[in-house]
């Protein structure tokens, strides 16, 4: 096998791999045996026909194609090892010629990451306070939730629960025709369209009304924007909430019960403070990671980026399919072309990768690692929280990739924690560190898991 390598821009290497006939023959033999196992050839038991019979039966070109399918990944792996390449992701490979066999493969290398003066990052924490208005809003919400719905002997008012028939027509087509539907007459209710609730106000039980509303510019279905919808409604029942007084008796009926209204207020204050503190922590981490990313230069292959974009769009497609829709319907709803959507996905991927490699580089410079005990403890915690899904999760975690993923998640958390210490001025001087070389799989897992730092609490 003759291998030549050509350096390309953006951390890519083009490999030219030439195979002679002697190297191809074992793969042709493997392709023949695989074909023989799948064919029913008269006069021979399955898998027992000789190659001289099988080859004309399937055609030599097909046999060669099958052999190359087997050969390519193995030849590529050997070529990458021979050239000592630090492969960063899935290569793009093609068959240049079949006689002789020449393969060409573009290998994305691990990104080149430069981190500038990250020890100079500083960021002030925001103070967390709970206002009386927040407590009041929570109490009002509790009053509303605990109050029963009772029949109202009056016309509809906002905040009522109304039972009605509704028929809607757009461009002469009936888009809905429901009987006895329950509707919350809130001013901001977007269903079926904002303004519908206001049209019900002052309608009494047994009364009907016809009216039209134009779909607004920000309506979710772009095809209906600006069009008039003609509604016919008939009110059957009106119910209202009878809100209880805010007193000690009310407090006794909330949750497990509180002796006094003041005790309930303090519990609310404590709960809000915990939530606000956690939200502030996440904002702080996001801000310092953004500062770290702004000091990071990442040179990476477009193949890595596009592979991640494909992965993101595939996940989106699967999610939309589960919601009984699809990507085409979603794009029509939001008024975007596939090209525009992919461009947005690419921008999001680039941001995530940049932040991920920045944290990875910080972890290397700070010599942050995950011990076996830490990995096993994380595994135990995850399995305990998995409940009925624990068995399936255990099978995933009890693999080299699963354990690597756990280790990388731990290192990521440590990197974020160290970055926070730096930003708060707790860490004063750089530690002497020799960056550790990570495998391709480890680096990829860091990139995938860093997104959770941006979206959810640490852990």
Short description:
This protein is an alpha+beta fold and 459 residues long. Helix content is 50%, strand content 18%.
Structural notes for this entry:
- With 459 residues, this protein is an alpha+beta fold.
- It contains 14 helices and eleven strands.
- A hairpin with a 2-residue loop joins strand 7 and strand 8.
- The C terminus is likely disordered.
Descriptive labels:
Alpha-Beta Plaits, 3 domains, five-stranded antiparallel β-sheet, four-stranded antiparallel β-sheet, 14 helices, 11 strands, disordered C terminus
* Rg result: 32 Å
Helix content: 40-55%
In total, the number of strands is 11
The proportion of residues in beta strands is: 15-25%
The topology string of helices and strands comes to EEHHHEEEHEEEHEEHHEHHHHHHH
**Poorly predicted parts:** 431-459
Shape: extended
Would you tell me the structural class of the helices and strands?
A: alpha+beta
Please identify the oligomeric state. Answer: single chain
Could you tell me how far the N terminus lies from the C terminus, measured between alpha carbons in angstroms? Answer: 48 Å
Report the major sheet: 5 strands, antiparallel
């Amino acid at each position: 096998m003759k291998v030549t390598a050509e350096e390309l821009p953006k951390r890519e290497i083009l490999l030219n791999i030439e195979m002679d006939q002697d190297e191809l023959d074992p793969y042709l033999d493997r392709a023949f045996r695989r074909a023989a196992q799948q064919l029913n050839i008269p006069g021979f038991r399955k898998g027992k026909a000789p190659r001289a019979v099988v080859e004309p039966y399937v055609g030599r070109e097909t046999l060669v194609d099958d052999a190359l399918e087997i050969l390519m990944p193995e030849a590529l792996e050997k070529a990458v090892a021979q050239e000592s390449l630090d492969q960063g992701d899935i290569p793009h490979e093609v068959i240049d010629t079949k006689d002789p066999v020449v393969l060409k493969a573009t290998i994305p290398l691990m990104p080149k990451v430069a981190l500038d003066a990250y020890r100079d990052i500083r960021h002030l924490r925001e103070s967390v306070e709970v206002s009386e208005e927040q407590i009041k809003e929570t109490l009002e919400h509790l009053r509303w939730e605990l109050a029963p719905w009772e029949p109202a002997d009056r016309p509809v008012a906002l905040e009522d629960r109304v039972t009605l028939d509704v028929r809607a027509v757009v461009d002469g087509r009936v888009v809905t025709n429901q009987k006895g539907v329950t509707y919350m007459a809130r001013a901001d209710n977007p269903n079926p369209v904002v303004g519908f609730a206001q049209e019900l106000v002052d309608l009494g039980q047994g009364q009907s009304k016809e009216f039209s509303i134009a779909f607004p510019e920000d309506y979710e279905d772009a095809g209906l924007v600006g069009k008039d919808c003609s509604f016919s409604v008939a009110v059957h029942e009106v119910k209202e909430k009878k809100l209880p007084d805010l007193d000690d008796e009310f407090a006794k009926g909330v949750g497990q019960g509180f002796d006094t209204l003041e005790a309930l207020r303090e519990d609310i204050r404590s709960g809000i403070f915990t939530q606000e503190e956690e939200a502030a922590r996440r904002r702080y981490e996001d801000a310092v990671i953004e500062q770290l990313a702004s000091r990071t230069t990442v040179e990476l292959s477009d193949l890595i980026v596009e592979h991640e974009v494909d992965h993101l769009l595939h996940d989106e497609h699967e999610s939309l399919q589960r919601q009984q829709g699809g990507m085409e319907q979603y794009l029509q709803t939001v008024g975007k072309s596939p090209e525009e959507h992919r461009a947005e996905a690419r921008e999001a991927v680039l941001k995530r990768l940049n932040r991920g490699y920045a944290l990875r580089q910080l972890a290397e410079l700070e010599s942050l690692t995950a011990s076996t005990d830490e990995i096993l403890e994380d595994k135990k915690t995850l399995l305990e929280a998995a409940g009925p899904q624990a068995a399936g999760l255990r099978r995933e975690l009890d693999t080299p990739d699963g354990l690597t993923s756990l280790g990388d998640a731990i290192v990521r958390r440590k990197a974020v924690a160290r970055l926070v210490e730096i930003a708060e001025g707790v860490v004063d001087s750089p530690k002497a560190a020799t960056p550790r070389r990570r495998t391709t799989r480890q680096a990829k897992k860091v990139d995938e898991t860093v997104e959770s730092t941006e979206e959810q609490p640490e852990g």
